[in-house]
Amino acid sequence: MPSDFRTSSLNHEGDTDNYYRSSMNIVTAAEFPGLKTLGLAIARTDLALDGMVTPHAHPRATEMLFASKGIVIAGFVGTKNDLFLKWLFLKWLNEGDVYVLPQDMPHFYLNTGSELATAFSYFNSQNPGVVRMADASFDFTPDFVKRLRERLLLSLTSLEIENIRNLTLFKF
């Protein structure tokens, strides 16, 4: 069927009126038959002001994140082959920037701009799966999310923000 090879599922902004102030709509081969056997999936993420996508991982796919609108901080945690030495790979993404998030690495996004941010994710699997670390680790009440968001944003000084724009790797 020709309709199997076209979708309009990502045309509209998602509802960001929630705890995280974000919305993600993923389209896999289950929703878009034209993707079957191609090893591809796509998602749209909308982030309201100070919106975030909490730490999660995709066990079956690498993700390529394209910042379509706004400013997004994206990052992932790596171990550098050492269980006790963690590395945070963090980048400030402007419109048109692309960031690669390796398969099964915990990662997150945060809107740090002054407008709605939109990003599109491309996966090299028709079913990337998702493991949400935050849901398994924390009790994400609205108050907790608000405090976490404020802490993240307030903890960044203007010098740190400038360093994040140019930083690829640092330890924590």
UniProtKB/TrEMBL annotation:
- Lipid metabolism among keywords: no
User: Where found in the cell?
Assistant: Secreted, Extracellular space, Apoplast
Q: Which residues are listed for Mn(2+) binding in this entry?
A: 56, 58, 63, 107
Q: Which GO terms describe its molecular function?
A: manganese ion binding
The source's domain of life comes to: Eukaryota
* Any one cellular-component term (Gene Ontology): apoplast
- Cupin type-1 domain span: 8-146
**Record carries keyword Manganese:** yes
Task: Note the Gene3D superfamilies from the entry.
Answer: Jelly Rolls
Q: Which UniProt keywords apply?
A: Apoplast, Disulfide bond, Manganese, Metal-binding, Secreted
> Which InterPro entries does the entry mention?
Cupin_1 (IPR006045), Germin (IPR001929), Germin_Mn-BS (IPR019780), RmlC-like_jellyroll (IPR014710), RmlC_Cupin_sf (IPR011051)
Q: Where does oxalate bind?
A: 58, 63
Q: Name one Pfam family in it.
A: Cupin_1
**Protein family per UniProt:** Belongs to the germin family.
The protein's matches in PANTHER family, at most eight in alphabetical order, are given as: GERMIN-LIKE PROTEIN SUBFAMILY 3 MEMBER 3
Question: What's the name of the protein?
Answer: Germin-like protein
The organism of origin for this protein = Dillenia turbinata
